[in-house]
Design brief:
The model has no long low-confidence stretch (mean pLDDT about 90). The chain has helices at about 1-5, 10-15, 35-50. It is built from three helices and no strands. The protein has one domain. By secondary structure, it is an all-alpha fold.
Length: about 55
């Protein structure tokens, strides 16, 4: 079942960010868990700062 999923067009499609989202999405790859966690922490801090700061 896993081999079938990895060979599917949907799997290959899901590996790329759609062009329409590229300008507005924050992409965090999870190839390195510790790095991904740090990137998520930074992203969340930016969201909180944006939500708390007027303007």
């Amino acid at each position: 079942m896993i081999e079938k999923r990895l060979a599917s067009p949907e799997y290959k499609r899901d590996l790329r960010l759609p062009a329409g989202l590229a300008a507005v999405a924050t992409e965090i790859k999870n190839d390195d868990w510790a790095l991904a966690c740090r990137q998520i922490d930074v992203f969340m801090a930016q969201l909180i700062d944006t939500a708390v700061t007027p303007g």
